[in-house]
Amino acid sequence: MSPIPSIPQSHTQSSIQSPTETGGAVLEESKHSQDPESVAENEDHERPRPPSTPSSPLLKAETFPKDKYCQHTVSQPAKELTPLEEPACNMTGESPTAQMTLQEASEVNYRSLQTRNEELEERYAELWKDWKQLGEDLSDLRANNQPLGQLNDTDLIPSATQLKYNISNLSQQWPGGRQMKNAPKEVQYLPYLQSITPGYRTLLNDPDRRPQIIEAFIWRVLTGEVFGRFHWAGEIAPSVGDLENWLAAITESDPSRYSDLRMWTSKTTELLLETLVDQEQEPSGYLGRLKRGIVGRILKALRVPENSKQGIVLQLDDILDRALELDKEFSQQVAEWEWHYAEANCEERLVYDQNLMVLDGLPKKKGQKVVKLVVSPALVRRGDTKGKNYDQETIGMKMGVSCKGF
């Protein structure tokens, strides 16, 4: 076994600084003598080494004892210099510098949002002002472009007054007929009779009070079966009525939209009438069946004798024609026209109100008067031709009442 060659001291120092031998170990025999020829041979075979690079990491020599005769020297990379340590983190894991940065960013973001909010509020105020002005312009436009068929009170009230006169005149001519004891339960219009007064049979058998019951009964039938039903439109009447009732239910939760409902009713009436004229369709067949049915049920409820029916039928037919025509005119109006019945108070009494009612005769007693019988309803107008003021009521025709007992 050949001896390990010894490396001269100068070469050892060079190898320590050379990057080509980083991590390599150069063994140096310190206590054993070396053969001069071996040393020369090693010097001849050793290649020249490049100069050390300044940027290379420094190497540090460390020795490890192996035994008492030899010592190994190991070349290792020197520890790199560490940069300055960052400041200690806080409890949240963020350094104070980062925390300040987040706080500043939050403040900047808050100021930006606050500025944006102020801009939006200004824009909202401008839009609200424009929207309000647009609403006023639209109201003026509607007022200047009214649907056709708009009538004044002086046009409608006389028609209603004439209808009332015809009904009163017929009730005065109504034949006595047989004594009414118990109306048959299958009579369809029996609820209208019962709604007049519980003692309607007694008054029908009284010649002096019979006309009032007849008049009140005819009015109840007209307000329940004719007015507000769009019968003048013919076969399409039920569909139009259902649609208006559906829209009316919506406006109950939003009274501000009642003007839109009245405008819709007026415009729809106008379109329906134009369509009937253009198509040359007359709802005479539908109206004929309607009138015959109403007249027959009235006669059956009041038990009119056969020999007296002819004259009664003709007058009832004329009354129905006037009522249908008046209902068509009401439907064309932007203002609402309604037949109104007063309601009893908490004591189940209806107190006479001279602003709303008219008596059938002068009262015999002074003081508070209690209404015993409502003969005819009041005609009330809500709103005006411009589609405004629906919270204001105007009495077009007072309610006919009687305070006479029975």
UniProtKB/TrEMBL annotation:
Key words of the record: Coiled coil
Q: What is the lineage of its organism?
A: Eukaryota, Fungi, Dikarya, Ascomycota, Pezizomycotina
Q: Residue spans with biased composition (Polar residues)?
A: 7-21
Q: Where is this region: Disordered?
A: 1-68
The coiled-coil regions, if any, are 103-130
Stated name of the protein: Uncharacterized protein
